[in-house]
Design a protein that fits this description.
Length: 237
């Protein structure tokens, strides 16, 4: 299937899951994860109406943002940074992206705020939570959530929109659902203190349906749109 057909297929899966789980139509947005994929693949996705794209690697992502700003400004693509954050790369992210999903410490939030150009709207940010509690995975523990949210709420160039997680990759639906429900409950607790937050970034190609049942508002889909990734030429810094 072509990239356009894949997007149409994913969109119809999202629509039927919204119906199945009593979610309103349009409540789940699709972020197309284009890491390692060339501009032609992104152009194909835009031909199916896709406008939001997620990138994981700073250098590769910045090159794509610049390329599309220069050659396709009328598409008005919305770029989301969804990869691990290093403090020496925050400036490039603050200058090029509209969203960051992976804030996991105060220092990174402060740097993104300080480096966000005054000419751009505030950076839309999500706090990444380590939902499976594995030492190897990035993201904060639940106990650190409110402190980090409080700091972000004082930073004028960042707007806190919600939370994100990458749960352990497990095949069974019940475990996927349980992990996503946990993240959704953190989001609900956070929303009692910050009523404007509205984004729950969870669900990938292998666990999208469970994420929709649990209340996701943004699924991050790569493989099911663009096919398998080839990392041999990627800048994985
Ligand atoms: C790569 C990636 C995705 C997309 O994963 P697929 O399984 O290819 O859909 C989503 N979220 C993050 C954070 C990723 O790094």
């Amino acid at each position: 299937m072509s990239i356009q057909e894949n997007i149409e297929h994913i969109t119809s899966l999202i629509e039927s899951a919204q119906t199945k789980f009593g979610r309103s139509q349009g409540s789940v947005q699709l972020l197309a994860v284009s890491k390692t994929k060339p501009p032609e693949a992104i152009i194909a996705a835009t031909q199916a109406g896709q406008r939001k794209f997620g990138e994981n690697y700073v250098q590769e992502g910045v090159e794509k943002v610049q390329y599309f700003n220069q050659h396709y400004p009328d598409l008005s693509l919305e770029w989301h940074f969804i990869g691990p954050l290093q403090s020496n790369k925050t400036r490039a992210i603050a200058e090029h992206f509209a969203w960051v999903h992976t804030i996991d410490r105060a220092k990174i939030a402060q740097r993104l705020n300080d480096q966000r150009p005054a000419t751009l709207p505030p950076l839309q940010v999500l706090i990444q939570i380590n939902i499976s509690g594995e030492a190897s995975k990035s993201g904060i523990q639940e106990s650190e959530l409110f402190e980090l949210a409080e700091l972000i709420s004082t930073l004028p160039n960042l707007t806190l929109r919600g939370v994100m997680a990458i749960p352990q990759n497990v095949p069974d639906y019940a475990s996927q659902l349980a992990a996503f429900q946990k993240l959704a409950s953190y989001q609900q607790t956070l929303a009692t203190r910050y009523p404007h937050i509205n984004t729950l970034s969870m669900g990938m190609s292998g666990d999208m349906e469970a994420a929709i049942e649990a209340g996701t508002t943004m699924v991050r889909i790569g493989t099911a749109i663009f096919g398998q990734r080839d990392y041999s030429h990627a800048h994985t810094e």
